[in-house]
Structure prediction request, 256 residues.
Amino acid sequence: MQLRVLETSESVARLVALDLWESIEAGARRLGFATGRTMIDVYREFVELAEALPENWNWSGIQTYNLDEYVGLGPQNSRSFHYFMQQHLFLPLALDNAHTHVPNGLAPDLERECQEYEEIATESPIDVQLLGLGINGHIGFNEPGTPFSSTTHIVKLSGATLQQNAPDFDGSEPPGKALTMGIQTILNARRIMLVATGIAKAQALEALLYGPVGTECPASALRLHPQVSVYVDRALMDGVLERQQSKEVPTHEIRV
Ligand code: GLP
Prediction:
C-alpha cells in the first residue's frame, strides 16, 4: 500500500485526478467511480484536465462503474448518487449514458439488480477503482461487519453513515437502504485509489492503516490488495499520528 500525504485537500484532489489521467493514458478503460463530498474536488480537477485534451479525444472506449446508490432514488432525484455523477462528471465530460453504469435504486427486483450489476462490474476487472472513506471505515456502502467475500448487495445503512450523509439531504432523512458493490467486488479491481481528507476521518484512517485487518473496519480489506494508493491531507494524517501519540512519520509515507 502506498500512502501519499499532501499539504491540502486541494492538492490531494489534483494529484488523484492526475494519477487517474495517467492510468487512462496507460490504457485503463474500465473506471470505478465513487461519490461523496471528497470526490467533488477530484472530479472538478479531472474535468479541468479533460478540457485540455485534443478535440479528437474519444471517450467511447471508456466504461464507468459506480460503487453504490440509495434504494428508492433514481437519476432524476438530485440526492441520488446517479444525479451526483451526472452533475460532476458524466455531463461535463459528455459521456454516453450507455457507458456509465450506476446501480439502479429504483429496480423493481433489487436482488436481481444486484446480481446483474455484479456481472457487468466484474465481467472483466475494473482497471482503476476510486474510493472514499466513511467515518466508520466503510468503503462504498459496505458497513462494519460486512464479509470481505461480499459481492453487490442490498445494505441497511448504519446510524453513523446516515448521520454522515444527512447534510446532503437538507434536513430530511436519507434513505435507510442502499445497493453497493461488495468488498470482494472492490478487491477485484486491478488498482485502487482511496481518497480521504479532514480530521473527522482520523479514526477510520488509523484503522485502515494500522488496525487489524478484519470486518470491523471494511477499509482494512484494502491491505489484502497488491495495488492500493491512499491519498490524504496533512490535517488528517496529523490526526492519525496524534491518535497514535507519536509524531513519527510512517516509513511508507511518500511526500509530494
Ligand atoms: C458515502 C459513499 C461512500 C463515500 C462516503 C464518503 O457514504 N457511499 O462511497 O466514501 O460517502 O463521503 P464524504 O466524501 O462525503 O466524506
Observations:
- The pocket of GLP is lined by residues 34-38, 67-68, 132-134, 140-141, 161, 165 (CB under 6 Å).
- The first strand starts at residue 2 and ends at 6.
- Residues 212 and 220 are 7 Å apart (CA to CA).
